[in-house]
Amino acid sequence: MSQENVDLVRGIYDSFASGDVPAVLASFDPEIVWNEAENFPYADGNPYVGPQAVVDGVFARLGSEWEYWNLDIEEILDAGDRAIAVGRYHAKNKETGKVINAQFTHFWTIRDGKATRFQQYADTAQASKAVETD
For the whole prediction, is pTM greater than 0.85? Predict the structure, then answer.
């Protein structure tokens, strides 16, 4: 089961990278609980419950506020009913033109082949500074 969970999470990232949001959402449980890192710009809606809440509160904002938001996945670790992704965000804010190259760790909980929980840990200082206008 664990390798299947790693493959599921890798597929989520691959789909996100190619812009296939419907495939990303198909990997989510209907009651997914999504939490952005404390003090991250999008933590204001924590917890996001359900795929549409994630789209509205996180994905749509990423798309509208950032010129690009790329994830460089360094590894995905098998942790039983969880998968842990480690990597870096590479992004450029549209309004400020500031870029980030920030560490992250994502904890995914998987049940019955669907992502049921997501917890982000990230360099919140870089993201916050990137959205601040001087």
Answer: yes
